[in-house]
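Tokens in:
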């Protein structure tokens, strides 16, 4: 057995990193803090503040012990005039240890050592009860110096100070069934007030408790705390539905239980549990229960805090009135469904029998509790329970109580629990699941400024957060009023919308590039919008002002504006309409040169197809959502975000704009799939509306002539299924034209940029869409391939569009690796390059489809974001690479940015769930397993095998979607190991692969680390070249370190893996394209690339004959220079998810 001291240290470590991130510093005046977070009666002038300080100055005290004595005396002086029944008595605990309230978890949770204790009103000692925490109202933790304030800086010592407060708060919550508790931190002459609940904590500003103002604040806190607004509570934070049993009532409780026939053994431990709980059933009646035994408790502070009690119903005279029951008490996350609703759904169904084997029965509503006539069973072998939800924001309780009968032979368990049989451990495992609890939004007047996020890219696994819902199981969750929907969208936009602290003119010139000369503004005072009245009264005046602004625009460029007046507009496509509710933008702008068609009843036209910008209005400036965080402000941002999402989805836009109007001020927002940025707040009526005038002019005058507005995709052109040309092509291909076909129709051009001709497609059907805004936004279309004359070739294809994070490898590279791996086995290699290029497309696809490899047949693809970056010097970017992710990390890197990917596959399948026969389903699974093996042998682990990614066609199966693919061969090579299956298997088991010949263990990884640290480079034998399918030697690119322009085009300075700097060489684009290191180079900000390139401007080509470049479809591939530790961690993390 480990020594006691070792156990304590381990328990202390378990608290580290848990509490500090969940404590929010409220910067409002402390009077606001007390009003919002301590809902009690203010002291007013009823009790005067001592004019003379009752505290000794901490600077004259040499120890915390002396400070504690001074504080104890001073606090008692402050409350001396309180009524005796309301007076808290302060006791110097002098860090005496107080154990965890219950033995059931006492061993795992060591004792706390608070400095000063405030006893509950009317109490004079903590020893009058078996549980000392039962008599404590709140605690005071002290430090002698002001710089030990844990909210002023971060260190291990500061975090330990917060942990001390948190442990005491946890013990109070557990002991007294409190809803929330308070603690005071004293740091020299400074003090802070903390409030804890099971989702986190808030703290006040620091104030000097030694001066008159500080003493008044403390007195007001003490008075509010002991004078709660709820009459049934003794102190603020107490649960009005719970009454703790006092020590002198203990004997009566024990007698009552024995008279009721309850087999209960009285003890000091049992007396800690005794409490009455009042529960309101669904029939509206209140019932009272006496809890007399603690079955289970989860003592974690930031958790569901599940507690399971044995209890018995009692009548008004506190006499037994029912059978023993089990009550499960926990704190539900607001984004999870109540278990009570699940029970009601099961038992209220007209098809449900009166008794359901395998499901626990609960007695709320009472009509479901009649179990007479059931066969007897041994109740000792089964712990039955159900959940008792207590909602965080109020004192109301919704609960479920499981009636427990001695007779029955059926095993009944809770809906979401594991089977609980004869072992207590099974019961514990079933109720001990913990979930992270996110912080509740602050009240509207609590100003918590919005901040940019600073998370490092991909340093840890992607955190599990609730995002906006793609599909819903319960239809009500799709409604705008649904709490589930609201919380999901608030999580989606949190930290993703950043205010740009730059001049608005600079914002417009950067985020809305335009080369058209803007004519002078002619409108005079166009806006006469009422402020402060009804929001709806602002709509028409704003529309009139906007029309006045653009009246001098060329007709073909002039947008029109409509007062939408909260008219519902459905989600663009029927495919997700049941999961995505309709929205109601206030004012909408049309596309340039168009007007809004009159709306007809039951019209299925996609109205988002005609909208260029939305305006969301609020009647006062204080409702600007970028001023501070609150639930209401988050909902305002969600309104803007949903409209932007709908425009992006409907029109295949690269980015979308929205304008928020708040009284007389406004902000311009720009959304893409990585995040959003907005301008400073500005007076939109000033200078005759000059800012909005410039915004609208730039919007309809993009730099590219083939775009109608800024944010349009030049490779997509909309087509109407009603036009003769499109109608003829669709009929020729036997495509049925429906309303959804008309919504989907668009021309798409794909330029593979690999010396191959661009191809054109006509999209006619939406197969799948991920409607989340800040995501990969995967969209899958069915399309017709067209020849050079625009006629259908007869080939139907699938086009997949997605937005790849720059931190991840492109799916296009994974398909090329697989193709390069398979090609030598399918086609002859004794060809010239010209012959190979001629047959590579037709012959490869023909053989691939004939032999059926269990993978989708990928035929064409483009990384549009990377292509745009390569052409940035000669062609203005339009947004195929996002621009907002970099601002979420203060410009430190671009890993949060996303690149627009487009892939074409000739394999069109149906989901495996739609199999007609079991035999076919088995064959589909077999084929997918074979496809997975083939990809693995090529070096790619798919990592996302799911129902949607295993499909069937003509009775055969295939695997697709390599977005989450992982190149295990490149990882092993970068770490100095052999890139063989045997080496990978060993690496997956032990973390160490088989060292490559000539490389000592992890010499290559060590070399990377030394280079990163600036130490002397370690010389290792050069690796053997890879022989590609045409017999040409190819080498690994370690990193691209510079670029420069030449007469033949751009050249890139390449560092070759395993070679010194003297072998660095300038390579053309075709030699490095497709390399991961090259993608890493392009992911750097342009200014950084310019600075790095300037350092190598005069570098000549390296010595000797440089190695050949790594071709795009080489058999193996490369990785950029990276920290080997991170590579290993990422490798392990990804392997765990298989």
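Residues out:
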């Amino acid at each position: 057995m480990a020594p006691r001291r070792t156990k304590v240290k381990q328990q202390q470590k378990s608290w580290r990193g848990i509490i500090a991130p969940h404590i929010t510093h409220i910067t409002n005046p402390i009077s606001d803090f007390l009003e919002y977070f301590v809902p009690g009666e203010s002291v007013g002038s009823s009790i005067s503040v001592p004019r003379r300080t009752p505290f000794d100055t901490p600077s004259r005290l040499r120890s915390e012990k002396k400070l504690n004595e001074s504080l104890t005396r001073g606090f008692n002086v402050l409350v001396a005039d309180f009524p005796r029944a309301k007076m808290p008595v302060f006791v110097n605990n002098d860090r005496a240890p107080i154990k965890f309230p219950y033995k059931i978890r006492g061993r795992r949770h060591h004792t706390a050592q608070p400095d000063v204790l405030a006893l509950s009103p009317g109490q004079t000692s903590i020893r009058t009860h078996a549980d000392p925490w039962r008599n404590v109202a709140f605690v005071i933790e002290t430090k002698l110096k002001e710089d030990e304030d844990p909210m002023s800086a971060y260190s291990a010592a500061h975090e330990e100070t917060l942990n001390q407060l948190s442990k005491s708060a946890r013990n109070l919550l557990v002991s007294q069934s409190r809803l929330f508790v308070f603690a005071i931190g004293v740091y020299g002459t400074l003090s802070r007030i903390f409030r804890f609940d099971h989702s986190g904590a808030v703290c006040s500003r620091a104030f000097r408790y030694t001066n008159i103002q500080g003493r008044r604040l403390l007195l007001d806190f003490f008075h509010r705390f002991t004078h709660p607004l709820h009459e049934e509570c003794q102190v603020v934070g107490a649960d009005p539905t719970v009454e703790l049993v006092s020590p002198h009532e203990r004997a009566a409780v024990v007698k009552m239980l024995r008279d009721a026939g309850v087999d209960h053994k009285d003890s000091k431990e049992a007396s800690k549990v005794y409490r009455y709980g009042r529960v309101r059933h669904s029939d509206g009646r209140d019932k009272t229960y006496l809890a007399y035994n603690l079955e289970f408790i989860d003592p974690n502070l930031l958790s569901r805090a599940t507690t399971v009690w044995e209890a018995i119903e009692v009548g008004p005279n506190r006499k037994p009135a029912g059978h023993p029951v089990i009550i499960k008490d926990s704190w539900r996350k607001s984004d999870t469904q109540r278990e009570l609703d699940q029970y009601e759904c099961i038992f209220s169904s007209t098809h449900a029998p009166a008794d359901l084997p395998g499901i626990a029965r609960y007695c709320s509503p009472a009509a479901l509790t009649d179990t007479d006539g059931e066969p007897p069973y041994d109740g000792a072998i089964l712990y039955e329970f159900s959940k008792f939800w207590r909602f965080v924001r109020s004192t109301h309780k919704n609960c479920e109580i499981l009636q427990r009968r001695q007779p029955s032979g059926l095993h009944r368990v809770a809906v979401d629990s594991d089977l609980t049989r004869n072992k207590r451990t099974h019961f514990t495992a079933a109720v001990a699941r913990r979930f992270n609890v996110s912080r509740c939004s602050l009240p509207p007047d609590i100003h918590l400024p919005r901040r940019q996020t600073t998370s490092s890219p991909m340093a840890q696994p992607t955190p599990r957060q609730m995002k906006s819902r793609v599909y819903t199981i319960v239809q009500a969750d799709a409604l705008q009023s649904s709490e589930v929907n609201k919380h999901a969208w608030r999580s989606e936009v949190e930290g993703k919308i950043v205010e740009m602290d730059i001049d608005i003119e600079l914002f417009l010139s950067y985020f809305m590039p335009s080369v058209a000369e803007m004519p002078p503004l002619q409108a005079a005072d166009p806006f006469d919008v009422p402020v402060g009245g009804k929001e709806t009264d602002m709509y028409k005046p704003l529309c009139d002002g906007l029309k006045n602004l653009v009246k001098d625009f060329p007709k073909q460029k002039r947008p029109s504006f409509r007062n939408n007046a909260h008219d519902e507009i459905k989600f663009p496509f029927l495919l997700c309409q049941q999961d995505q509710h309709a929205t109601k933008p206030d004012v909408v702008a049309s596309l340039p040169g168009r007007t809004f068609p009159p709306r007809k009843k039951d019209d299925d036209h996609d109205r988002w197809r005609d909208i260029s910008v939305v305006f969301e209005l609020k009647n006062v400036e204080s409702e600007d959502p970028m001023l501070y965080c609150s639930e209401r402000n988050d909902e305002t941002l969600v309104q803007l975000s949903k409209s932007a999402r709908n425009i992006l989805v409907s029109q295949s836009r690269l980015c979308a704009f929205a304008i928020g109007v708040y009284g007389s001020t406004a902000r311009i927002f720009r959304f893409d799939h990585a995040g959003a940025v907005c301008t400073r707040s500005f007076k939109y009526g000033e200078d005759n509306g000059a800012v909005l005038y410039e915004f609208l002019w730039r919007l309809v005058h993009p730099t590219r002539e083939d775009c109608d507005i800024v944010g349009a995709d030049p490779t997509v052109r909309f087509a109407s299924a009603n036009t003769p040309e499109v109608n003829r092509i669709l009929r020729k291909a036997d495509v049925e034209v429906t309303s959804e076909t008309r919504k989907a129709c668009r021309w798409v051009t794909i330029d593979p940029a690999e010396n191959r001709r661009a191809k054109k497609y006509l999209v006619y059907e939406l197969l799948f869409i991920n409607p989340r805004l800040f995501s990969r936004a995967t969209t899958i279309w069915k399309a017709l391939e067209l020849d050079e004359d625009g006629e259908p070739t007869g080939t139907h294809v699938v086009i997949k569009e997605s937005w790849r994070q720059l931190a991840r490898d492109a799916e296009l590279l994974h398909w090329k690796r697989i193709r390069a791996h398979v090609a030598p086995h399918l086609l002859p290699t004794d060809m010239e390059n010209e012959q190979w290029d001629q047959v590579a497309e037709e012959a490869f696809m023909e053989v691939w489809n004939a032999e059926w490899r269990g993978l989708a047949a990928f035929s064409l693809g483009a990384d549009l974001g990377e292509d745009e970056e390569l052409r940035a010097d000669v062609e203005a970017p339009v947004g195929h690479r996002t621009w907002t992710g970099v601002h979420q990390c203060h410009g430190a890197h671009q890993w949060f940015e996303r690149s627009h990917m487009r892939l074409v596959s000739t394999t069109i399948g149906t989901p495996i769930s739609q199999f007609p026969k079991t035999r076919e389903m088995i064959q589909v699974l077999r084929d997918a397993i074979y496809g997975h093996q083939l990809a693995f042998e090529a070096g790619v682990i798919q990592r996302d095998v799911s129902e949607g990614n295993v499909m069937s066609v003509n009775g055969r199966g295939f695997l697709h979607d390599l977005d989450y693919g992982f190149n295990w061969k490149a990882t092993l090579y970068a770490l100095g190991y052999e890139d063989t299956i045997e080496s990978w298997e060993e690496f997956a088991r032990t973390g160490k692969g088989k060292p490559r010949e000539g490389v000592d263990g992890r010499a290559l990884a060590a070399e990377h680390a030394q280079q990163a640290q600036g130490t002397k480079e370690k010389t290792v034998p050069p690796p053997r070249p890879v022989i590609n399918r045409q017999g040409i030697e190819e080498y690994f690119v370690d990193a691209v370190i510079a670029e420069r322009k030449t007469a033949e085009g751009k050249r890139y300075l390449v560092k070759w893996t395993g070679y010194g700097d003297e072998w660095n060489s300038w390579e053309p684009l075709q030699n490095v394209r497709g390399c991961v290191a090259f993608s890493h180079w392009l992911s750097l900000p342009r200014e950084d690339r310019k600075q790095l390139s300037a350092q190598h401007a005069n570098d000549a080509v390296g010595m000797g004959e440089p190695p050949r470049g790594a071709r795009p479809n080489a058999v193996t591939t490369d990785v950029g220079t990276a920290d080997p530790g991170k590579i290993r961690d990422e490798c392990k993390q990804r392997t765990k998810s298989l």
